[in-house]
Amino acid sequence: MDGERARIERDLHDGAQQRLGAVTTQLRVALHLADRDRAQADHVLAAVREELIATGRELDDLANGVHPAVLVEHGLVAALRATTGRATMATEVRAAGVGRLPAAVEAHVYSACLEAVQNAAKHAGPDASVTIAVTGRGEGRLRFAVSDDVVGADLDRLRGGRGFANIADRMHAIGGTAAAVSAPGAGTTIAGKL
User: Fold this and answer.
1) What's the gap between Cα 73 and its chain centre?
2) How far apart are CA 135 and CA 110, in angstroms?
């Protein structure tokens, strides 16, 4: 029961909670634009609506014990690309040599990447851009890196935060590791490997 509770907790945090955090950021942007550029504010609000609809679907999926349909049906790379289409900042997915993986691996890596993107959105701001690079390295080997292009982060604070702890826990659960690298002027990268 404790294991199942922890899984649900992680899924809520990595999924719906992150989406709602993105909605909060989008609403701040819309409020900022409301008096300056009504058309752009309306565009942001339309994106908020879509994000809330997707969040509702994700909560329904969680209640039914399933992962996002695109992840189950098409795999990790397709799910990451679908998610980045709704990101609050410019996000690119680069993938090489990644085929279908065991469901648990896809779910954990997907959630870890989402967490890293949301951390970037939260700390880097809407002007940042993010690249998700996922590479397969033969049977059972995979690497991912989520990199932003902002000024860098306090690594002690980052590594001590809940977001990075969730990423590390997810990777550890499937026999992998996670690391964070940051340098002034070079942005931050959160990486994982199995």
Assistant:
1) 19
2) 13
pLDDT in tens, 8-43: 777 777 777 777 888 888 888 888 888 888 888 888
How far apart (Å, rounded) are the C-alpha atoms in residues 117 and 91? 8
Q: Return the structure tokens found at 39.
A: 């058309």
In percent, how much of the chain has pLDDT > 90?
23
| 67 token code pair | 């992962």
3-state per-residue secondary structure call for 71-140: HHHHCHHHHHHHHHCCCCCEEEEEEECCCCCCHHHHHHHHHHHHHHHHHHHHHHCCCCEEEEEEEECCCC
**Phi, psi (degrees; rounded to nearest 5) at 135:** -130, 140
Terminal C-alpha separation, the chain: 27
Q: pLDDT, tens digit, for every residue of 50-90?
A: 888 888 777 766 655 567 788 988 999 999 998 887 777 78
DSSP letter for each residue of 23-76: HHHHHHHHHHHTTT-HHHHHHHHHHHHHHHHHHHHHHHHHHTT---HHHHHH-H
Mean pLDDT, rounded, of the chain:
83
How many whole angstroms separate alpha carbon 84 and alpha carbon 63? 23
> Phi and psi of 30, rounded to 5°?
-60, -40
Look up residue 187 and give its amino acid: G
